[in-house]
Task: structure prediction
Amino acid sequence: MTPSFPDGPRSWALVLLGLVLATACGDAEPVVFMPIERILVDIPAEPDRRVVETENPKSPVEATTIHPSPFRQFDAGAIAGLSMVPPARVRLNLEGLPRDSELRFGTGYDQLAYELESEGTVRFRIYNGETLLHENFMPFGPGIPDARKIWRRAAVPLGGMQNVVLETHLIRGDPDLLPPAGFGGLKIASDEERPRELATDDHPNLVVVVIDTLRPDRTSTYGYDQETSPHLSALAERGTKFESAWAPSPWTWPSTASLLTTLEPPEHGLMGPTNAVYLTQSLYTLPECLQTEGWTTGAFSTNPLIQVGKGFDQGFESFTEYRWKPSYLLMDEADAWLEQNSEWRFFLYLHLTDPHEYTPRRATSKSLIGTKPDGYSLARLQTAHTRMLRGKSHDIDQLRTDVAYRSTKYDATVFESDEALGRLHDKLAALGRLEDTIIVVTSDHGEAFMEHDVLHHSSTLYDEMVKVPLIIAGPGVPSGRTISERVQNRHLASTLLQLIDVEPTSNLTSGIDLFDDARRSSASAEPFFFTTMLGYWAAEGEQAELRQQPLHGVRVNDELFFHTPGLDRPMRRYFKLDTDPTAHDDLSEQFPERCDDLAAMIKVWMETLVARSPVVVGGGRSTQDLLQGIGYVGDDDE
Result:
C-alpha cells in the first residue's frame, strides 16, 4: 500500500511545476521522474469491499492464490485473486475512491483447469449497471498450448463509479466439469510521478542484503574458527555489529515480511504454510516508504518464496526473481542495476540463498569442504535422520558423519555469499558510491545441524534456527562498535528510516531505532516472541508429535519457553539459559506453574496481534507444491 503523498496531489503538482520552471530558466539538471503505483484497495484482502451475488454451490467464491502455469517464461505466475468458478457474480464497492483510479486485474485459470478431461470456454465480464466495461473469452482443457495458459491483463478506468460487478459464465463445456476461473491481482490503483532524487549526507543510498539461512556462529565475523566471512568482517569493522540479533520465525515468509514491515508475524499475517501466503497490499513496506521519498528501488531474490506473486514486490520499481540462482551469477545483474541507477539515490534489496542450498560452486570455497564419507548421499542422511526421529533403528555414527560433511558444504556456501559482499563493496567503490551508501547484512533465519536432534530450519525455536547476524555500516553508523544487547531484526526498517532522516508512518512506526541506546536497552528486557506454523517435536517415541503443527515461544530474560498449543496433549519445553545456555535441560515438569504463566503470555500476544492483522489469503495447490518442493511441508507419515 502506498499512502498518498503528505500534502496531497495538488501540492505535488505545485512542486513539479516549480521544478520544471527552475529547469527551464536556469542551468539545473533536467528533472527525471519515476512512476509510482498507489494501491488504494487490495480486493482479495478486503472482504468489506465485495458482495457475492451468485456463486457455484459446489465451489464458492473465495480469496486465494491462482496459478495458471508453472512455466516461468510466460505471464502465468501465482498471484492472489478471487476464485470464481462459473457461474459467479461479485459486486465491488468503490465508494470514496478518487476519480482517476483504475481497477487492475488479470483473468485466467488455476492450472487445474488445463487438467480437466473436457474442453470449454468461460466468458469474463465486468459491468457498471448496464454498461459493459470489459469482456474476454478464455478456453480451458488439456489441449491448450502452454503459451496460452497465462493471465490476460487489463485495466478499467473507474471515473467515480460507485460499484462494478465481476462475472464468470460458462459459454461452452461440460457443466459438471467446471474450471477454477478467476480474477487475479485484483486491485484499485492510481499512478503518481515522483522526481528521482540524488543521494545526500542526510539521505544516503541503502543496500540491504539478506543471506538466507545464515547462522552468525558459522561466520568468522562472529567467532567461527573457519575463515568463512572476511568481507562481512571488514563491513563490521567500519560499522556496527549486533552480537545478539533474532529473527521472529525460523523460516522465510514470516521473517522476511517482518523485516519489510517491522510487524511481528501474527500481525502482518504471512504465517503460512498454505492458508496465509500473501503479504497484503494494505500494509506499508520499507521500499514503499523509500520510493515515496524519492529513492529509486530495485530487488533481486533467488528464493522462490520471495516473489511478486506473494506480494513482496510492493514499493520496488523493479523486482527480479529466480529459483536458487547462485550469488556469483546474481551479482552480475546486481552490478548492472547499480551501474544503471547509481546516478540517483537508490535502495537495493538482495536476497541470496547459497547457504540454503548447500551447493558450493566456486573453486575459492572448495578448501572448506571436508572429505566425503563413503557412500554418502543426501537420501541416506535424510532417511537415517527420519528413522532417528521416529525412534527406529539407525546408524547414529554414520548419521553424525554425514551431517558433519554436509555442514562443511554449508560453510563453503557461506564463504561464497561473503564473496558476493566483496563484489558489492568493490562495485560501489568503483562507482564512487561507497561513502554515501548504508549497507546492511542480516538473515531471515538460521540452520540446525542436530544440536537438538533436528536438521535444516522452520521446525523449532532454538538459537540455531532464530539467531541471525545483523551488521550495519555506512554514513551515520558508528564504526567498530559491537552491541551485545538482544535485538530483533524486524526493527531494521525503523532503524534505517531514522538513519536517513525519514519519518516512519503507518505500520512502520511499530519498530524502534536500534541505535537509540535507551529504547534498545528497554526493548531488550521485554519478552521476545517467536512462532512457526511448520513446527514439530523431535522426541524419541513420540511419533504423533512429529506432525507439522504451530509452535510458539517466548524469551523472558534468561528463560526460554515454547509449546504446541494445538495438540490434544500440548507439549512444552522450558529452559533456564543462565545455567543452561544451549537449552538442553528441559525443566517444564519442575516448573509447571511458570510454564502456565508463559503459555498465557503467548496466548495474549497471539490474540492481540491477530486481532490487528489484515485478512489473509490462502495459497491453493501451487503453494502446496512450492513448499513441498523446497521441503517445508510434506506428508505427515513421511
